[in-house]
Amino acid sequence: MNPVSNLPFTLLRNPRHDNAEPYGAQREALLSAPALAQAQAVITAWPGYCATPLRSLAGLAAAAGVAAIHYKDEASRFGLGSFKALGGAYAVTRLLCREIGERLGRTVSPEALLLEPALRQACADITVTCATDGNHGRSVAWGAQMMGCRCVIYIHASVSEGRKRAIEAYGAHVIRTAGNYDDSVQEADRDARRNGWFVISDTSYPGYMDIPRDVMQGYQLMVHEAVQAMAQWPTHVFVQAGVGGFAAAVCAYFWERSAARRPVLVVVEPERADCLMQSAKAGALVAVKGDLDTLMAGLACGEVSLLAWQILERGADAFCTIGDPAAVELMRLLARPLAADPVIVAGESAVAGLAAALLILQQAQARDALGLGADSRLLFFGSEGDTDPALYAQLVGRSATEVLQAADAA
User: Fold this and answer.
1) Both 288 and 385 in a single domain?
2) Do 150 and 59 share a structural domain?
3) How many whole angstroms separate alpha carbon 75 and alpha carbon 378?
4) CATH number of domain containing 93
5) What is the CA 209 to chain-centroid distance, rounded?
6) Residue 206: burial class (beta carbons within 10 Å; 0-12, 13-18, 19+)
7) Sign of torsion, CA 310 315 321 327?
8) In principle, which of 66, 174, 241, 272 could form an S-S bond with 376, CB 3.0–4.6 Å?
């Protein structure tokens, strides 16, 4: 018996998907195995690096009628609480190496940035900035603090005070703007141009590709860790999306390595911020306007990243949207798991993929459209823990500490 309520969802098979299409040189220029190896060498050398756990949810899999469910739990990533630590901080490091190297007329390595006093001083003269729903900004601020440069972060009107304080804890100056996420992106860009700052964005647009590519390349380390921990490749991957960079990084990893046997990839969005699904329907990039009101704050984006679309336009098998109640139900389910499954603290933006899969498994037509059955092996990326502790406690009914203490006592 499926353990979740029969809540509404929308599923769209990607009309431009072609499972036989090779990854190709053009996409390899965006994300590639050699570039991942370079990112892996840098990130695994940072203080505190540890691969995050891949949780097996056998009880949930049995209840849902599939062979296996694996959940990559990013709540412990570098103490920042989300996978974003892999992307923003790596992009900051790459930017500083390029910029200082150009100023000095020599190659500057990431290791040298951390160790050489003269380079640390050069970093102190550079300011990085971005707009954020919370987690990306925290990663950029942490990377700036680690490398010794200045940081200014823009948040939009609906970002919580808890997320604001979490960013400030890493030494960043935080500016709250009016409007939605996309409005804050534009304001950050305008101020950066005026002040000579460097934008570290996880979304790309014409003329701004290198830094978002570095962000996405950092994300792929998470996918690599998950695959290394699995005995077999998954048959299906459900991945949540905001601007699409995270989903594209996951898609590209499997596609590059084997176009023929890559898993079915379903991109999941909040129903009120579905720019990827709308773009897939239209066959062209579509911006979703309005306040993009959703509890899944990290996914509340109205414009697709151009780089991400170059991969997802033909690489994603399907797009799905869910409502906030489904996300809340999954947060509670993971906090009070089935059978002997591990307790997981998952934030509201972490569970969209898993919520969508469990909803789809209840509907025969949708289930058959994706080839889901008793032999399916599902992989999910739990992209954050309780990155807004107050909101987590409100939605789940207990704080993350109380959830984990109850698990220890059981």
Assistant:
1) yes
2) no
3) 20
4) 3.40.50.1100
5) 18
6) exposed
7) negative
8) 66
- Claim to verify: residue 353 and residue 400 sit in the same structural domain: yes
Domain residue limits at 101: 88-201
Element spanning 406, H or E = helix 400-409
Residues 346, 331: Cα–Cα separation, whole Å: 6
Residues 6+ apart with CB under 8 A from 68: 56, 58, 61, 376, 377, 378
The answer to whether residue 4 sits within a structural domain is no
Instruction: Locate the DSSP E strands across 210-317.
Output: 236-240, 264-270
Q: Do 266 and 366 reside in the same domain of the chain?
A: yes
Taking the whole predicted model, whether its pTM rises above 0.90 is answered as yes
**Closest C-alpha to 77, from 225, 217, 199, 181:** 225
Per-residue pLDDT tens over the stretch 19-73 = 889 999 999 999 999 999 999 999 999 999 999 999 999 999 999 999 999 999 9
Question: Domain end: 201, 236, 257, which one?
Answer: 201
Same domain, 190 and 218: no
341, 60 Cβ separation under 8 angstroms: yes
* 380: enclosing H helix or E strand: strand 377-382
Is 183 in the active site? Answer: no
Residue 84 annotated to the active site: yes
Which position among 72, 73, 133, 386 bears the catalytic label?
A: 133
Residues 97 and 162 grouped into a single domain: yes
Beta-strand relationship, 264-270 and 236-240: parallel
Give the β-pairing of 54-56 and 9-13. unpaired
Please tell me whether residues 116 and 181 are part of one structural domain. Answer: yes
Q: How many CB atoms sit inside 10 A of residue 229's CB?
A: 14
Nearest of 98, 203, 205 to residue 149 by alpha carbon: 98
**226 lies in a domain?**
yes
Q: What are phi and psi of 110, to 5 degrees?
A: -60, -35
227 and 359 share one domain: yes
CA-based torsion, 55, 60, 62, 64: positive or negative? negative
Counting the structural domains of the chain, the total is 2
Annotated active-site residue in 18, 72, 73, 84: 84
Tell me: the pLDDT tens digits for 239-289?
999 999 999 999 999 999 999 899 999 999 999 999 999 999 999 999 998
Per-residue pLDDT band for 3 (boundaries 50, 70, 90) equals: confident
How far apart are alpha carbons 10 and 280 in whole angstroms?
A: 13
The reply to whether 28 falls in a domain is yes
